Amino acid sequence: MADRPYDYLSALGARIAIARNELGMSQAKLAEALGISLRAYQSYELGKRSIPVEALVEMHQKFDVDLNWILLGVEAVRMKHDIAALEEFEVALDKYLSDSGTKLKSEKRGAIAARWYRSFLEGKEIAMDDVHTWIELLRE
């Protein structure tokens, strides 16, 4: 946790802004949906005030926003987001393997997916070119 309350509120506000952006909503639209004034909502995103619990619960209920991530940040896992990213990666991996005619044992394919996923969770993006290199190294 941050040393000063403002640091925490600033980080909390940033995560609220990210969640709003992921929803594709303007500040005004989200404030209206939550039943709060635009000015109050803006103060939450700027880290000037703490967002009320009622507004957080409303965000979760209406938009399925991950409150663990909003409140705790990188310490929490955003399960639906992470699973969707892993599924997208596996589809791309399978397409590449099929298109290139490459055969990999399931253990090797699993190792590639696990390594990519671990890097994803750590916030380190792995380019598909690097994944292709891994495949060449593991090719049967």
UniProtKB/TrEMBL annotation:
Pfam families: HTH_3
SMART domains: HTH_XRE (SM00530)
Name this polypeptide is given: Anaerobic benzoate catabolism transcriptional regulator
Matches recorded under PROSITE patterns: HTH_CROC1
Domain of life: Bacteria
Species name: Phaeobacter italicus
Gene3D superfamilies from the UniProt entry: lambda repressor-like DNA-binding domains
Phylogenetic lineage: Bacteria, Pseudomonadati, Pseudomonadota, Alphaproteobacteria, Rhodobacterales
Gene Ontology MF terms in the entry: DNA binding
HTH cro/C1-type domain ranges (all copies): 16-70
InterPro entries from the UniProt entry: Cro/C1-type_HTH, Lambda_DNA-bd_dom_sf
